[in-house]
């Protein structure tokens, strides 16, 4: 039977130097369970964590090896998971219902391979912190009033796609990178009432993206270094600020066939070049207070439907307004030749 099935209120278990196929840790109806998988121990297949009900608490600490981890926290339960060693084949973690909370820490020596799928729904709260190393496909999502906050202080190696931070149907996601992310990062919010806030204070060796569809709201900033930066709105509002370094281009676009699409891009730092465009119902607000370095031979170009104005400068700023209802407001406070 799973841990907690035969105990009335509290249970603490330490596994040391064991090898088993599967571990189930279940806490329900006001129980408190503390599980420590000690050094030298290995769960070859999977660990299932389940916490359900008010005044229910579950704590899991991994100091050994486990195959796959799945955690579900529901109906006002509280759970805390800490990985100090290795999760070998990825994990799926979900928190749901108002009052439910899951805190997950991948510690400095912790390694997670095989990717991760983290989610919060229906006003559940999920706080995730990486101080170690995570590799594989990676997703963080909040839905239906759920809140997910994730912070990277270590290293994330993204494979096969991107690190996807996603808010939908009234969800809220907050993402902060203080470490290194090797791969593309997408910060997205879809549908009215959904919000996504992101900040890079470290290094992103890939494109750093902010996008909204159908009325969501996204705000983000780069205070570190990224390969490229993209801000796009297909309905909704996006604000992106660069205070750091963009090795390649800053790119932005705004349009939607039936609702307002609003994108604000401010460069206070350094970028090689900038391309922005506004289509149907798109509103662009572009401000450059920093450096567009380029190669000394490129152009600043403003393009309208019936004409073009060009001037040779060091960086490249291209602005394209291409459909009915499109608007671009441009402020150039400082461009270095």
Q: Concise description?
A:
The chain has strands spanning 10-15, 19-28, 32-37, 42-52, 57-62, 65-74, 78-83, 86-87, 91-96, 101-106, 111-112, 116-121, 125-130, 133-143, 147-152, 155-168, 172-177, 180-190, 195-200, 203-213, 217-222, 225-234, 236-242, 245-254, 261-267, 270-278, 282-288, 291-292, 299-304, 307-312, 316-321, 327-332. The protein contains no helices and 32 strands.
Question: What would you say this structure looks like, in words?
Answer:
The structure is a single chain. The chain is mainly beta and 337 residues long. Helices cover 0% and strands 68% of the residues. The protein has strands spanning 10-15, 19-28, 32-37, 42-52, 57-62, 65-74, 78-83, 86-87, 91-96, 101-106, 111-112, 116-121, 125-130, 133-143, 147-152, 155-168, 172-177, 180-190, 195-200, 203-213, 217-222, 225-234, 236-242, 245-254, 261-267, 270-278, 282-288, 291-292, 299-304, 307-312, 316-321, 327-332. A 14-stranded parallel beta sheet has the order 1-3-5-7-10-13-15-17-19-21-23-25-27-32, with no helix packed on it. Strands 6-8-11-14-12-9 form a six-stranded parallel beta barrel. The protein is elongated, with a radius of gyration of 23 Å. It starts with 9 loop residues before the first strand and ends in a 5-residue tail after the last strand.
C-alpha termini separation: 72 Å
In total, the number of strands is 32
In the predicted model, the low-confidence regions spanning at least 5 consecutive residues are 296-315
User: Which class do the helix and strand fractions yield?
Assistant: mainly beta
Major pleated sheet: 14 strands, parallel
Spatial ordering of strands, largest sheet = 1-3-5-7-10-13-15-17-19-21-23-25-27-32
Helix content estimate: under 10%
Q: Radius of gyration over alpha carbons?
A: 23 Å
What is the molecular shape?
Answer: elongated
Q: Beta fraction of the residues?
A: over 45%
The average pLDDT value, as a whole number, equals: 88
- Provide a count of the helices: 0
């Amino acid at each position: 039977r799973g841990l907690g099935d035969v105990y009335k209120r509290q249970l603490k278990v330490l596994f040391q130097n064991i090898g088993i196929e599967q571990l189930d840790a279940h806490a329900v109806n006001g129980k408190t369970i503390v599980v420590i998988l000690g050094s030298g121990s290995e769960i070859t297949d999977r660990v299932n964590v389940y916490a359900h009900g008010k005044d229910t608490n579950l704590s899991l600490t991994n100091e050994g090896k486990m195959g796959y981890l799945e955690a579900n926290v529901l109906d006002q339960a509280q759970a805390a998971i800490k990985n100090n060693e290795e999760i070998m084949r990825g994990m799926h973690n979900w928190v749901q219902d108002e009052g439910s909370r899951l805190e997950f820490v991948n510690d400095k020596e912790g390694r997670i391979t095989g990717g991760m799928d983290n989610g919060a729904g229906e006003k559940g709260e999920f706080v995730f912190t990486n101080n170690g190393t995570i590799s594989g496909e990676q997703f963080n999502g909040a839905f239906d009033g759920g809140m997910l906050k994730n912070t990277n202080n270590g290293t994330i190696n993204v494979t096969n796609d991107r690190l996807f931070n996603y808010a939908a149907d009234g969800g809220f996601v907050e993402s902060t990178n203080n470490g290194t992310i090797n791969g593309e990062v997408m910060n997205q919010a879809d549908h009215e009432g959904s919000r996504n806030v992101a900040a890079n204070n470290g290094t992103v060796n890939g494109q750093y993206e902010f996008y909204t569809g159908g009325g969501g709201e996204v705000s983000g900033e780069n205070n570190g270094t990224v390969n490229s930066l993209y801000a796009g709105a297909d309905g909704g509002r996006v604000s992106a600020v660069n205070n750091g370094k963009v090795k390649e281009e800053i790119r932005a676009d705004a349009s939607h066939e039936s609702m307002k699409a609003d994108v604000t891009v401010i460069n206070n730092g350094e970028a090689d070049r900038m391309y922005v465009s506004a289509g149907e119902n798109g509103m662009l607000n572009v401000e450059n207070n920093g450096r567009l370095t380029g190669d000394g031979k490129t152009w600043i170009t403003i393009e309208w439907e019936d004409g073009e104005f060009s001037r040779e400068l060091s960086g490249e700023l291209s602005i394209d307004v291409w459909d009915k209802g499109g608007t671009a407001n441009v402020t150039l406070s400082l461009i270095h030749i």
